[in-house]
Design goal:
The protein is α/β, with parallel strands linked by helices and about 230 residues long. A hairpin with a 2-residue loop joins strand 8 and strand 9.
């Protein structure tokens, strides 16, 4: 699948890191934009189409997590790969809550960065192709998921779901009554080319329950086994 026309926004307050990333990405044929802070990243993304952002977490004034939070509330949210020197579980979980596709720890291998960028772009391109196909819905009473648009409505009102919240809900709705362990959910629902912790499933389920109103009672947990959708 051709990726050479994809635009990548590199956001990091360290010029040396931006330069080495941009140089190597451009060598691979990507179009690159760069920003030295979170606010500049938001301004660029508002004016330019960005397919993927390599987003540093620890930046002055506005962190990468704050940038991602703004993007998640907009219609122009690119695919996200976070760059971090912290590696703390709380930051990893928060990043995935905000729709991160992957995490790369500093210091990083350039080969690893290029491989993960290609994997995330390939996955999103596949999703775009599916979105162009015929409309498909997944329905449970007044809860409707529009698979081609990756959106959901509750009693006719659109509910805002992150990418992984949507995928998890769609998966459980399509397999009602069947219990899946956290490990199985990670295998079937989450991408297999990034760092994901089993606790991420719990975080996503808790966030999802808050968004689906009374239907939260159907998203069940069986202690010691996992999660399932009760009919």
């Amino acid at each position: 699948m051709e990726m050479k026309n994809k635009t990548i926004l590199v956001v990091d307050d360290e010029p040396d890191i931006r330069e080495i990333l941009v140089f190597n990405l451009e060598q691979e044929g990507y179009r690159c934009l760069q920003a030295s802070c979170g606010r500049a990243a938001l301004q660029i993304a508002a004016l330019e189409h960005v397919d993927l952002a390599l987003l540093d977490i620890m930046m002055p004034n506005m962190s990468g997590l704050e940038v991602a939070e703004v993007w998640q509330k907009s219609e122009k949210c690119p695919a996200l790969i976070f760059l971090t020197a912290l590696g703390e579980e709380a930051d990893v979980l928060r990043g995935f809550e905000l729709g991160a596709d992957d995490y790369i720890h500093k210091p990083f291998s350039l080969k690893q960065v290029l491989a993960r960028v290609a994997a995330v772009l390939r996955r999103h391109s596949t999703t775009d192709m599916i979105a162009e196909s015929a409309e498909k819905t997944i329905t449970y009473e007044d809860l409707v998921l529009y698979d081609s648009l990756k959106t959901a409505t509750l009693c006719g009102t659109t509910i805002s779901l992150t990418r992984m919240e949507y995928e998890l809900l769609a998966f459980l709705l399509q397999h009602p009554g069947k219990i899946y362990s956290r490990a199985e959910i990670l295998r079937y629902v989450w991408p297999d080319d990034g760092l994901v912790l089993e606790r991420t499933v719990d975080v996503t389920v808790n966030r999802l329950r808050k968004k689906i109103g009374d239907y939260r009672e159907h998203l069940k947990a069986k202690t010691g086994y996992g999660y399932y959708w009760e009919k």
